[in-house]
Design brief:
The complex is a heterodimer. Chain A is mostly helical. Chain A has helices at about 1-40, 55-65, 95-105, 115-140, 150-165, 175-195, 210-240, 260-295, 300-320, 330-350; strands at about 45, 50. In chain A, strands 1-2 form a two-stranded antiparallel sheet. The radius of gyration of chain B is 38 Å and the shape is elongated. The chains are: A mainly alpha, B alpha+beta. Bound molecules: protoporphyrin IX containing FE (HEM).
Amino acid sequence: MTQTIDEYSVFFLYAAMAVYAMAFIAFALDLARRSAQVGAGNRVGVDGSVTTADERVLEKVGAGAPVAVSGSAVGGGSAVVGAAPARRGLFSRGGGSASIDGGSGVGTTKRSLSLRLGVAFTLIGFLLEATADVLRGIAAARVPWANMYEFSMTGTVLIVGVFLVVITRVDLRFLGTFITGLVLILLGISTVNYYVGVSPLPPALQSAWLVIHVFVASLGTAFFALGFALSAIQLVQYRRESIVAGATFWRLKFMSSLPDSNRLENLAYRVNIVGFVFWTFTLIAGAVWAERAWGRYWGWDTKEVWTFIIWVIYAGYIHARATRGWRGSRSAVLAIIGFAAVLFNFGIVNVFFHGLHSYSGL
Amino acid sequence: MSRPSDHYDSPDPAFAERSAGGPVTDGSGGPDGTAGGDILQPKLGVVGWLRWFWRQLTSMRTALFLLLLLALAAVPGSLVPQRAADPNGVTQYFVDNPDLAPVLDKVQAFDVYTSVWFSSIYLLLFISLVGCVIPRAKHHFDALRAKPPRTPARLSRLAGFQQREAGPGTNGAEAIEAARAMLRRSGYRTVVFSAPGRNGGEVTSVSAERGYARETGNLVFHAALVGILITVGVGGGFGFSGQRVLVEKGQTFVNTLSAFDSFNPGRFFTESSLTPYTMKLDQFSATYETKADGAFGQPLDYNAQVTTQEQGGAEQQSDIKVNSPLRIGGTDVYLLGNGYAPTITVKDPTGKVVFTDSIPFLPQDASLTSVGVVKVPDGLTEQLGMIGFFYPTQAVSTTGAFYSTYPDDDYPVLTLNVYQGDLGLNGGTPTSVYSLDTDTLTQLTGGSTGMKSIELKPGDSQALPNGLGTVSFDTVSRFASLDIHHDPTQGYVLLFATLALLGLLVSLFIPRRRVWVKATERDDGTVTLEYAGLARGEDPRLVPAVAEIADRHTKLIGSQPPPESNA
Ligand code: HEM
């Protein structure tokens, strides 16, 4: 029985991967389309909408500001005269939305079909993968995050889930290629290398803290992944901005349809601090669990060391954002190093390093 | 602002003059007029240098640098085994890398987290932290009692600016009073200003500020970190940790120093802090997966059933499991390991028992193939040592070697290699009960001796070589390896950690913002209402928040939005 349910789980996982691959292609097509449109002299909004060059004059009057890279300063705190309240919540829609308003008024803006397909596929993939994850949990009669294979599955479900939630609040759909690509790679590695049959929990993992600690760590990782993508794009965007305007040799043309580096930085920060709070909780919960399981709350075990290192790097990132001369690209680099450490902690430390946390199941 | 002068929101040294008085940076220019210390050349002189040094140490840049250095310095400890966490790993490392290990040892690479260099980094960081937090705390304390600043003359330049017209008959002062009350209810601190406007009518405004908790949270967070450091540093000194192996069916531990197999006291530990109690291991049970799929033989549950008795108390039965320690007599008892303890008896040629004991054997693999040492110092013509292998469920490989296929004792077999000679027990140097120094011994069975190892099932007995006597394997018991800890301060550490987390939440997610509502009375009796806000730090929701305030306020006083909404 257990075996069959797990087989269903694997089936759903493969189905999810196939659909994610379709989502990846759709998102990539959207970026290619953006590049082509930008190359043709048209303006492309963050939401992938295209306004052809002719209508731009019209719209400029309507919307009042060139929008392609404007990324309105909602987040930055600088004055926006008469800006409408965009949206409630932690995040608010900013740059680019004006091009919808401006465009739709005249009825000439073309929305991006591939982008919407990408989101649709991502959602379907998410539902399939979540099903796979739940089935695995049912097969094992416990939470599905107790070995590398299961960490990967639950972790990627959360990455996609967080992405899907966040894009309802702020238009980060342009990250779709990155998110689906990352998830595909992780799932690929995990199904090929880490698959293990359903097995019961060893005594060391039989704890409510497994449920809390590992889940929150995965959630933090999901936010860090988004933050990483934003910071990486921020760096590219910043380079693009600092190259004299009109430089035609710039190849990633779609970049001009994305928010400006300043807005990307603010978005990255907001996502990363959520990740940081989850990570802080992970650290504390891990210590509480370690006390119960091993009799000491902190013992510099390899996994503890890396959790600590990641925490300190992100604390550094938050500081960098508040340090003159470090806001901007430098802090973005720290966020990227932070996420690299997260991946290292997950992919390398779990598998190759010795320590008390030898739960990779391999 | 008593933030470090290189804080992003501190006035830039180059622009400090220009913006210090402006409404936008008002308040961030603070009492510290010497902001921008980086470009001030220190006056040479001890005090000058010290001040310069202190300012460098407590700057954001130094904090950042030290944080990154701390992260970096923590890395080697994960690459090289650490004495505190993995002493055997260190020993092995020395064996494997005889040239490199001593060099690494010189730079404390096996004790990274207590090393001089690691400690200096975090101590400097915390000095910097204290130096940073104290002036900020003081400044914040003042700010908590100060009034919000004057309303800027031109709100239209600020974030989320909204303009609305109130119908005729609206009283500007009353409208502002309503706004003030409304903002007060939303947690803003408010102050009302009024002055005659340019064209006669009165200009009344309310200046409101909220989110002081943001800074409070930040201070709580940083102070809690100091709290953690101090409690860990001091608290560790009062505690102890010790280990004890107990064999089931009756071995008893008494909470006294001599009863521990090993003991690590903190710096301030005194023996009198051991509360007397006894703990007897009645039974140890282990359950394993029996289904023949991938998890066959995987442990499902370990349970140590103990009977404890505190001084003057009644006997009590408890279970100790891996994730549920026993809290008793100020100590916490953890189940960290288990294994088999075969009971072995040795008799001399006349049949007199010279040795009988249950010897804990150390597990070597997941199927609990275990190794143990038996030492028989007295009663025989020569001292006798035996290295034993225990296979709970024995199987024979194609090469003839024994191994265990399953961790439960389904088909237990014990093999013994016998040595005779000097056990080295009389030299006074302490020897481990788990190892046998064979240098001074002659091997009699097993290995290259040509004699088969002694092979026993429970209940079997067999003659020792050279007519030394007999050895028997009576029965097999389980042992539990228990860690006994006492840390009087870990509750405080948790408290500080929780405070840090709460402080962090408040500090990262409570926006600090200023909001202004201004009512300008016109000649024609209408009143223009203006709304605007100013973010102080990260505040993604400022603009919608100002709009919401404008909406609520205009609804409250019953005015209409401007005819041609520019929203
Ligand atoms: C153990 C070392 C430290 C750690 C782990 C740490 C961590 C953090 C974290 C996580 C934040 C963001 C959350 C918050 O605002 O409360 C923060 C903010 C801040 N820290 Fe630290 N910190 C440390 C040391 C320091 C030191 C030495 C200074 C002073 C030089 C400092 C000054 C600040 C300031 C001014 C902020 C506010 C940043 C802002 O305005 O956004 N911190 N710190």
